[in-house]
Amino acid sequence: MNSFDRNLELSDGLETDYIRLLYYEFDHYYKDFYKSYEYYRLCTILNGSKFIEVNNQENFIYNKDGFVVLPPQSAVSMEIKDPTRCLVFELSDILLDKICDKACITEDFECNPLERETHPLFRGNTRLIQSDIKKITLTALGKAKNKEFLIDLYVQEMIYKLLSRMSAGLMLEKKINNPIYKAIELMKNFYVKNLDLYEIAHSLNMSPALFSIKFKKITGVSPHAYYMNIKLKEAKKLLKHSSVTEVAYDLGYDNISNFIKNFYEKYGLTPKQYQLHNLNNTL
Prior knowledge:
Blueprint: H1 6-12, E1 14-15, E2 19-26, E3 30-35, E4 40-47, E5 49-54, E6 58-63, E7 66-70, E8 75-80, E9 84-91, H2 93-103, E10 122-125, H3 130-141, H4 147-165, H5 179-189, H6 197-203, H7 208-219, H8 223-238, H9 244-250, H10 256-267, H11 271-282
Antiparallel strand pairs: 1-2, 2-9, 3-8, 4-7, 4-9, 5-6, 5-8, 7-10
């Protein structure tokens, strides 16, 4: 591999309903920079080792005995000195929501939010998920017609183990009386409008400043950033059957250039590139 390229990642990876499975092989010294984009990214090493620095804050070396879970929008500098093979899982929100919703009803599984200000990433020993990685790898390399379905089954088991070990730190605590959860439900229900986030704060009997602090503590991002992410996720769905201009205006953008810029910053592709990628996959 000579460079990290988002188009190359998406075209060469295996995608199921729940994950994107990405494989990287480095035969010689390699140094580069990449982003985790919109999904949590579970990074494992099949052989070799990797030095990484995350968000210019935390740096370490890990090998096949360890794994790393990167939050969305992480900025990562990496350096590889010896031949190394890596297997990366991009975990969809659908997968994480499903597992947390099911698992949180059990007494031994507590869904507490991860405070990214103090825990920007999670590291663990691959003994926890080694058997799952092996099953997923063998299935991905196999020729079974239903291998995407099987991979999703194995991935659910693997992520359940991770979430239980991490106290479900990847997920928002979904309790109906949680004011932040109520705010998120409002954002999801009115993504086609430009909600006044200050009005949301007052409707929850909170000052805008306190609302922003509590919101970021639970989700890891500001209310505005979270609301924009909801819009951009919806944009991916709309772009399958509408033009870039139509989607921008449908989501409340007054300036199409801002929509294109925001979409690219989140996904690493322009809206038009995303449409062409989906069209090529369909063909």
